[in-house]
């Protein structure tokens, strides 16, 4: 009968409470009913799991867009100064070249010999040359949350630097006889995952060679510890540990994604030097690894022009950062108007969707990559129209405010700028492109090779490019990382390309597994998957899904909130009679247009919209639900708030860029100029007087300079969810200990989760207590401290839950 | 890829009973001439445009084709329907799919246009099994009439009767539901399933 076979046997007879036999048919019916309800439950769970993953992925890519915006802002800075203008000092100060010292001088700068290690220090005391036991001790120490003393850090890094300098660009490894090589992907500062890998697979040794495929740092909270462990093993087993460079091994990227912050926090005295040394080390990391001349291991990927012979020849250390192409040795007279010609070829991106499967062509690849910061300083003359095209493509700024400032400056620019040449030869440009392609590219499913405008560097390459590349170089497989995969690894291009990702729970606890792969002489990959957090073991699958979903939706609501003005205009355009209502379909399409996130909005709407009348949504009410609990001060415009909140990671990065010596302090003048440029760029209109007052009032400790806390405090970008997380994690741990039953505890593990649209995942450095508020003499500051009752933990994500508190304290006009 | 055209067959009865074994395809003669044939082409679509958009979103979520071709495997069809709030049995799903072979379930694909009439047909199934039926179903196993069922018994039943569940599925369903004595309070169990 039916799909399942029923045996009407004695075994299956049921009895009711009076001992009467229940007819088999009823039992059957009951079973089928339960089964079908279960299947519906499972399907619903699956939907939630899928859209949660989609949300995180699209947010991550949206966050990458932010990086591009930052880049554009820096470009704007370069474009809009004039020789006589006062901002020039700031610009040249930020972008000055300081690489003129020779190595010998650098070694003095990095000297550790006069750093004393106090007796009270209980961490590892390294002696060089390192041996296996010391490396293992280092791992143990970090497991116990100890911190390596800066003296040993510097010493270890110096030794690493020396070693890396003699390594080739291409590591060549072979699997002799029984040696299996273990390959790991992105770790992103998640020490737990590295420890888990070592636990499952053993630590690196002569019998156990490892290849690490880049992205060791940023986002996670133990980036420096991971580096130190990997470098230690590299020093002990230089023939059996291979490190590739990833796109995050780049000091400018680190400014934004948390590594710089982590180091400066952990090493307050010597952090600057450590970072500087790391900057060099990163540039000396090898670019790719080849196993048995058959398997290529590279962090990002390839392009249609990737040429290993060329890669082998480059001076890789000249390519310090993705945002800083190399300075050439001899200038050449290239056409200064090359830039403007290029722009003529650009295609305007309409309707950009976040979907990676159909990336839109962005324009000549060289245009992005050649648009270096040095380039800008040559003040290329462009027509206004071309500028509009560039800006419109990036799509965020008000054209009117831009053109106003541009008009004022452009005449000055064209008259004063000298037609100096750009400092590239074609060779160095070619090499630059090759390296960017290796570190930043992503595979795509259809043929061809197009620029990767989502990431802002490298390209998307198709299966035909893989074929061609493998044939040309006589290889059989490409192993790369760079993209998070739900199961830790994923094949594509007909199993010729393998993506390997080793940071589990990357977006959120329970979001994905990590994996590593072993290759023996047969070069057949053997995968091991894992998930690092002990939290996940206590939670069932549905609980996992719920938690991850909760975070994803929260982050999504935040995004909706910060785009309120644009959304409101979009809604009002649809709702011409101003009824305040729109139907769900229109709501969904408007959101798609504004946010450019390729998500199933209609499936998501029950989670994002609390109620509708007759299938129509009261959008003003909806915005109120999304918004802060407390109304913002009347002095602050909604638009400005949103803009600042949206750009808050960018703001922090800007601070770190302005702070060129990583001292943690910037001068008043730098700050003032930054604010001026920022306000013009972000279409915020703040007068000079206001800015001046803001600058002075920002220096709350009156030491004559601005530190990062004061800087962020000036914009009052407090993220309450960060505070919440600390408490929620505690609750989660308590709950797990107390009961077995599923508790809907919605929290995110602090510092290991990464909500891409929110702040960099790091211990909150900024001090956001009430006491700081009161010092700035301003209109009544908003409450930043939370009242305990409002930490929404036990109820399903309600729309009234606070996202954050933002206040911008603007001195009275 | 559209599924094979459904040969005239008896459609599933409007009760949540397990069906009689269908005649093997293609059987030109319907088993019970009284029942109407299941001809998907003649199913009129009564969904509104808004609803269809919503279905499209859900369908896309399950689309795993690398180029986003808006196709799902046969094996996913049931899940998409359930995600959209319906409650077909596996047999129901197989029927609308045209009784595909087991190996077809993971190799054949269904596009959105073909899916819609299937969904429409399923949505018409009057007796979807109400909440009360569900409770009644569980009560059958409540030997002592005290609101609890034996976890072990339920596991056994679900894995051996009806549309058998796999051990994994049963584990997932019962995770955290059994108390120290291995009993399940089925009111909370029901809430667990319904709250999803």
Task: Explain how this protein is built.
The complex is a heterodimer of chains A (813) and B (196). Chain A starts with 13 loop residues before the first strand and ends in a 7-residue tail after the last strand. A six-stranded mixed β-sheet of chain A has the order 3-7-8-12-14-13. Chain A has a five-stranded mixed β-sheet with strand order 6-5-4-15-16, with helices on one face. A three-stranded mixed β-sheet of chain A has the order 9-11-10. With 813 residues, chain A is α/β, with parallel strands linked by helices. Chain B has helices at 49-62, 74-83, 90-96, 112-124, 131-139, 151-160, 167-174, 186-195; strands spanning 71-73, 109-111, 148-150, 183-185. Residues 1-36 of chain B have low confidence and may be disordered. In chain B, the strands form two sheets. Chain B has a two-stranded antiparallel sheet. A two-stranded antiparallel ribbon of chain B has the order 3-4. Helices cover 41% and strands 6% of the residues of chain B. Chains A and B meet through strand 1, helix 1, helix 22 and helix 23 of A and helix 1, helix 2, helix 3, helix 5 and helix 6 of B.
Short description:
The complex is a heterodimer of chains A (813) and B (196). Chain A is an alpha/beta fold.
Largest sheet of chain B: 2 strands, antiparallel
What ranges of chain B have pLDDT less than 50 throughout 5 or more consecutive residues?
A: 1-36
Gross morphology of chain B is elongated
What spatial order of strands do you see in the largest sheet of chain B? Answer: 1-2
Q: Main beta sheet of chain A, described?
A: 6 strands, mixed
Protein name (chain B): Myosin light chain 4
Organism (chain B): Carassius auratus (Goldfish)
Region (Disordered) (chain A): 736-797
Family (chain A): Belongs to the PPP phosphatase family.
